[in-house]
Design a protein that fits this description.
Elements (H helix, E strand, L loop, with lengths): L3 H9 L3 E9 L4 E7 L5 E4 L3 E5 L2 E6 L7 H13 L5 H6 L12
Antiparallel strand pairs: 1-2, 2-3, 4-5
Length: about 100
């Protein structure tokens, strides 16, 4: 199995530096990266792969800094719990705690 952090560092090249990992679970890992040219920190979450009984069910990812975790979770919940199709799950309104600090 490939080390995810090493793969991300190779992919990001000289553009970003992975600062730290802020969350990890069975389905996903979330990193904070520093933009080397501009300076601000960004949130990076590689796509979440969903499988059932060893078969691929879906792959979900999102741009959006501090809203990534909420967006991915809501798409998955809409699909799995509420049986919404992928297009409608992605287009659905989002709930986020904008006042919470993610990093």
């Amino acid at each position: 199995m490939t080390d995810l952090r090493a793969t991300l560092e190779r992919t990001l090249g000289d553009t970003y530096t992975l600062e730290r990992e802020i969350a990890a679970g069975d389905m996903s890992r979330v990193f904070v990266a520093l933009d080397r040219a501009l300076g601000p920190e960004i949130i990076i979450e590689p796509p979440t792969i969903i499988s059932k009984d060893g078969r691929l069910v879906g792959v979900v990812g999102s741009p959006g800094g501090r809203t990534i975790i909420n967006a991915v979770l809501e798409v998955i919940l809409n699909q799995v719990d509420f049986k919404v199709g992928i297009e409608d799950a992605v287009k659905a309104a989002r709930v986020t705690l904008a006042l919470c600090r993610a990093v």
